[in-house]
Amino acid sequence: xxxxxxxxxxxxxxxxxxxxxxxxxxxxxxxxxxxxxxxxxxxxxxxxxxxxxxxxxxxxxxxxxxxxxxxxxxxxxxxxxxxxxxxxxxxxxxxxxxxxxxxxxxxxxxxxxxxxxxxxxxxxxxxxxxxxxxxxxxxxxxxxxxxxxxxxxxxxxxxxxxxxxxxxxxxxxxxxxxxxxxxxxxxxxxxxxxxxxxxxxxxxxxxxxxxxxxxxxxxxxxxxxxxxxxxxxxxxxxxxxxxxxxxxxxxxxxxxxxxxxxxxxxxxxxxxxxxxxxxxxxxxxxxxxxxxxxxxxxxxxxxxxxxxxxxxxxxxxxxxxxxxxxxxxxxxxxx
Length: 335
Description:
Layout: H1 12-22, E1 26-31, E2 43-50, H2 53-66, E3 70-73, E4 79-81, E5 86-93, E6 98-101, E7 104-108, H3 113-122, E8 125-126, H4 138-143, E9 147-148, E10 151-152, E11 157-164, E12 167-172, E13 193-200, E14 202-203, H5 206-227, E15 231-235, E16 240-241, H6 244-253, H7 259-264, E17 266-267, H8 269-275, E18 282-283, E19 286-288, E20 295-298, H9 304-322, E21 331-333
Parallel strand pairs: 2-5, 3-5, 4-21
Antiparallel strand pairs: 1-2, 6-7, 7-13, 8-14, 9-10, 11-12, 11-13, 15-20, 16-17, 18-19, 19-20
């Protein structure tokens, strides 16, 4: 996702060109609530669906030339959009090619992560099973280094093609700045826009593929139990990563923390929130899920302001009780 801050100007040339190229895939005053899994967000002044990296490039160039603020989204599964919407052009990457060559798979940013997993399994490749049931696009997954059940994108990414200073540049894994639910692409200051990614997977035997499918069925059941309560952005906060020294000290001051968390050096945000007695807490149209305390649910008619207030309350309670600062997994758009 990217926002480029420039004074608003009339952009008739850009609008006409976009309408000509995209037709019904270009809209004005499009509600962002229709394009985020939280079902929250005001109108984007201009909205375009780009089905290829080339369309993304063209739209960005047109917006830059016209001096129009712009932002890129994928499946909208990790975004909180402002109630005021976005005063510029929102480009939704939606679609793209997936090419398999041996154990490598090249995927356009707008391709759904679920489709990449399906293609991998179809071609006898393993390594993406952790992603089953996760919504969103490959581009979004790369930006946030999406992960679950012990796996993440950083484990598979070989290279990422990005738009950098209006040129397509290929970065290798070590250039991507991958961290826990983070990457260089998640930081607006870098200005890089993911266009495609090359993933290295593993050729599996039929028996291994069968085992992988069984593993995915178990994950789907677990995810269904956690995330089926209502519209959400999935896990709203990152789990808290600690050094070995900090984990040992945390155990001393909070002996109630499970030993397994200390071994992992990772304190789940959901556990912290639950310990603060916030499970099921509701503010306006949002509540902390009763099934998984790390999830903030839109109960119907929720606003972005409701979510911001709830997130602030959760962070304050955790900080007060545990001395830990929660960080959002979601990105804010239009704030």
